[in-house]
Amino acid sequence: MKKVIFLIAATAIVYITKMYAQQSHPPTEMPYNVSSGKGYPQLPGFSHKELNKETVDFIAKYAFNDVSYRVGYDKNGNWLYTIRTYAENKLPRNVRLIAKRSYKDYHITLVEEIEQPSDSFTYIIHLEGKTAWINLRVCNGEIDEWQKFNKPEN
């Protein structure tokens, strides 16, 4: 009886894991002609799609598990990039430590994770402090203060 229960539980875990893995990542290829605008992908939480008439790029926008996705494709349906937007708690620990170590008096308000084919992940980390907002760029373990905006004085 214990073996049967264990087997059922293990099968359920494998099934749920596979189902989650399929739903949590956007496709890297679109199996249809993007320029025609037909055959939009059926993704979980898919809420918006737009066709850029100038470049004939397709941008899929949707949200899943508290992460917003923007996925770009070229006119042939080839994947160009994915931008995931999420809160600090979903940021990989090693990337979070890089930012927190250098900017102790700031708190993370938003994270944008950029993925491109054959390229490392790039993280844009939005920080807020008492006197300024800072956007950091983190890639390959290196940190760069990409943008800084001073808050108005009261």
Which structural class do the helices and strands define? alpha+beta
- Radius of gyration from the alpha-carbon trace, in angstroms: 20 Å
Task: Count helical runs.
Answer: 2
Separation of the first and last Cα atoms: 71 Å
Within the largest sheet, what's the order of strands? Answer: 1-2-3-4-5-6-7-8
Largest sheet: number of strands, sense, barrel closure: 8 strands, antiparallel
Question: Average pLDDT, to the nearest integer?
Answer: 74
Using DSSP, what is the number of strands? 8
Helix content: 10-25%
Order of helices and strands: HEEEEHEEEE
Description:
With 154 residues, the chain is of the alpha+beta class. Helix content is 21%, strand content 41%. It contains two helices and eight strands. The protein has helices at residues 2-24, 93-102; strands at 46-52, 57-64, 67-73, 79-86, 107-115, 122-128, 132-139, 142-150. The protein has an eight-stranded antiparallel sheet with strand order 1-2-3-4-5-6-7-8. Strand 1 and strand 2 form a beta hairpin. The longest helix has 23 residues, at 2-24. The N and C termini lie far apart (71 Å).
